[in-house]
Amino acid sequence: MHQPQTFVVDGDAIREERMQAGLTRTELARQAGITRRYLCHLERGTRKRPSPPVYIALRQALKATDARLLAPPRPNPPERN
Fold first, then answer.
1. How far apart are the first and last CA of the chain?
2. What's the pLDDT tens digit per position in 24-62?
3. Interatomic CA distance for residues 1 and 39, integer angstroms
4. Is the dihedral of CA 57, 63, 65, 71 positive or negative?
């Protein structure tokens, strides 16, 4: 079964980029085509995996890079013997 691609975002980075852009949550949510409540969940980290269209809309609205908005990759756990 094929899983659609998802992005794991860094909520703190989204908030910082929004504030640097001088946008309110309502303004950014409107530009990205999402609800203010969903944006709040992303910024707080209670939601971390927006769909690709939502992630791309946020990135474009913030004029930010993937390196800035995506959460750092988690290290792989050590293998057990």
1. 30
2. 999 999 999 999 999 999 999 999 999 999 999 999 999
3. 30
4. negative
Long-range contacts from 61-69, C-beta under 8 angstroms, 24+ separation: 61/23, 61/28, 61/31, 61/32, 62/14, 62/17, 62/18, 62/21, 62/23, 62/28, 63/21, 64/13, 64/17, 68/13, 68/17, 69/9, 69/10, 69/13, 69/14, 69/17
Q: Which residue has the tokens 């004029």?
A: 63
Q: What is the DSSP string of 45-72?
A: TS-----HHHHHHHHHHHT--HHHHBPP
Residue 48 has, within 13 A of its CA and on its CB side, a CA count of 10
Q: Is the pTM of this model over 0.90?
A: no
